[in-house]
Automatic annotation (TrEMBL):
<dbReference type="GO" id="GO:0005829">
    <property type="term" value="C:cytosol"/>
</dbReference>
<protein>
    <submittedName>
        <fullName>Helix-turn-helix transcriptional regulator</fullName>
    </submittedName>
</protein>
<dbReference type="GO" id="GO:0003700">
    <property type="term" value="F:DNA-binding transcription factor activity"/>
</dbReference>
<dbReference type="InterPro" id="IPR001387">
    <property type="entry name" value="Cro/C1-type_HTH"/>
</dbReference>
<dbReference type="Pfam" id="PF01381">
    <property type="entry name" value="HTH_3"/>
</dbReference>
<keyword id="KW-0238">DNA-binding</keyword>
<dbReference type="InterPro" id="IPR050807">
    <property type="entry name" value="TransReg_Diox_bact_type"/>
</dbReference>
<dbReference type="InterPro" id="IPR010982">
    <property type="entry name" value="Lambda_DNA-bd_dom_sf"/>
</dbReference>
<feature type="domain" description="HTH cro/C1-type">
    <location>
        <begin position="5"/>
        <end position="60"/>
    </location>
</feature>
<dbReference type="GO" id="GO:0003677">
    <property type="term" value="F:DNA binding"/>
</dbReference>
Length: 63
């Protein structure tokens, strides 16, 4: 599964560190997701990231 996290985060204009603080998800984890180093993430992590970015979880999942 691929994620649109980096594109969405950059469009909003926040850094990985800022997103980590807002979401409670570690910056290293965010970096690994953005660089395609993980195949799946937990629904909890996906929801935290989506809420912090004020987008739907579907927006973060590349179809």
């Amino acid at each position: 599964m691929e994620f649109n996290l980096k594109a969405v985060r950059e469009e909003i204009g926040i850094s990985q560190s800022e997103l980590a603080k807002k979401s409670g998800v570690g910056r290293v984890t965010i970096n690994r997701i953005e660089n395609g180093e993980v195949d799946t993430i937990t629904s909890r992590t996906l929801v935290r990231l989506a809420k912090a970015l004020n987008v739907s979880t579907d927006t973060l999942i590349q179809q």
